[in-house]
């Protein structure tokens, strides 16, 4: 029988267990590592941002903050962001120096699953988790409204701008100007440029002397406001002129102090946002609700509230000091508690062990039974829980697999759509070629056309070119999407480049009575830029401006340096209807078509393409617009570009790139199609083109000057080239079976055809595709649509160059050495041919068929190859080689002239003498007498 369990033992254990539970370590709070990439720590405002972060983190001692300083260097900031991510952080806070250059590193961190909080400034991408920062536009508007109240809505103002090109400068100026537009009695009479630092501002003194009626100065930060006060004090105007600054920081000679001392009339608060950034970051890490866009508010600090603001700041500093003292005391108490806890654990463990041993010895039977029952129940409960967990895991796994499959399907569908979209765009190029080519030829070579016919043809050409431009925009969109568009910049005069584009719009603008003005701050501004990219940017901007500007309106294109000469600012302003509020947020989205009023809707690609190309060029494009007053688009470009974006040569000299994609193959037969040749022409041109219409068009254009043979696929074309040995080949790139690049490679590898000039026709315009054509051995690279006259002139030029090369080979063979060093396929052919002939010189009956058989080709192939390389026949070549060898043997006095003749395969000495004199205008005996000294 089991004895009942004594009552006093549980009563004894309860306080011990409660004490152990109270002393047990609490569950540790999750520790986080936050990386902060600061563009610079220079200046009180940036230091206030960091101090705010530290104040907020003092409530979270388990959070580690890693701060790196980029010293206002975008390249260094990119590298630091990547190092922070590789070092293992839970969240990244970034305050960018420049939006564009830092964007790739931020996007890379976001793709790797690291949450990104942008602080104060944005990047050029939407790939971030949250944004925290002030609204500089609102700061400018607040300053303008306060100035209006202060001056009773009338007066003259001088604006002291921040660093040129800075987003803060642009937005504060824009907000100030917009708000002043509601107060016609207020006007900005002058602007002075600063650089965010306190200085004497000599330009301000000049402006004040030129405008003695100025009653207020708006400085873009408190530091420049203090500098403005020093200038006013030196001129005796300190009590007359009100000064408004921006920042409102605490501390000696900062905004609050300057307002209290009367140096500044007011300061507009621009919060550094350090505390808000940390709060947002912790909300993200702890999976709590948070706002993606956190715009910090602003207020005006003046004599009415500056004391209250200062008291709040002082109180906050005092509270922060109290918190630090309490944390220090808490750390000491925790250390004492930890040491005492260890001792207490030891005592409690000893007491509990003794008690447990007594209980086990007294009631082992009862305890064993209860334990077994509990274990059985626990095992049953564990099995049930395990089954539930397995079921839940399987369900989660299935859902994850479904999500992955859906995501993969979405990526596949998107890629298929883009591929179809690109191929469809490519397919448009062949019919455009067949339209534009004949129209161009009719307009340039048909003098009998009536005026109405010329107008109709010009209309066809204009609309064909418009279709071609749309296709090019579609293809540029695809290149940007897949990252195939690259910058190849050269140094040049950006003023002249932009002026040429503006001049192209002068006539259409004049026809509508639109005044088109071009204003350049300097006659020449050198910069590194890619003309092919910027040409598309400014053509789109000017086309839009002309499209939306009413008759008798005005378009102004201005160009000026910025940021101390490091950038160039180009603006295109019009007096059109402006951009509606609902369209502004989507104006740079692909294929977005907003409310365009009575104007015909466009494709929705122009502005999106322009912005993508500007970003690719490491620039920025912004816009401003007012309803009924027009729009202004501003492009800011760096004057210097990294070495990897620079091109040593302006363009590849042997390539003609007219920007077009690959041709779409068609289903035509593979048999060669002979074209009737023009009588009297000896030059043979082989056309290899799978599109029957383009093939026929090329043959008709070339047939006027040359004999033409055609093939409709690469295999047939190569076979005809080796059989016919044509003088020139015109070949398409994209063909079924054997592509044009493969045809060129095989032609160059075969010594029978290695000498033939090749013109490639292609729908591909990417630089790497053009390089492939040149590397394969093409002599000319033309893109569709092409000008037929240009094609004919190019063919004539290539044939002329080939004739010069033949003359060069003939001069090589005319020297005393009868062999040619094989440095290329043509010279290797001559080397092999010369070796075969020299080995058989003694044969009087040496025939062309024998030589062709030794080379493994037909008699006709040998004849055309020799004719193409040397411009002479095979028999003439053999005779020339024998006579060249004869000069060597005649200098050997041991052989008679007759022996020399027979040694070289001449049928008789008289025939040898006749041939030698015809070649060198001297008989063999006279040659020997002239070159061998008489024996004494």
Describe the structure concisely.
Helix content is 53%, strand content 15%.
Structure notes:
This protein is α/β, with parallel strands linked by helices. It is built from 30 helices and 25 strands. The protein folds into 6 domains: 32-128, 3-Layer(aba) Sandwich (Rossmann fold); 136-269, Rossmann fold (3-Layer(aba) Sandwich); 365-459; 489-645, Heat Shock Protein 90 (2-Layer Sandwich); 673-810, 3-Layer(aba) Sandwich (Rossmann fold); 814-931, Orthogonal Bundle (Arc Repressor Mutant, subunit A). 53% of the residues lie in helices and 15% in strands. The strands form 5 sheets. Strands 2-1-3-4-5-11 form a 6-stranded parallel sheet, sandwiched between helices. Strands 7-6-8-9-10-12 form a 6-stranded mixed sheet, with helices on both faces. The model is unreliable at 650-680 and 814-823 (pLDDT under 50).
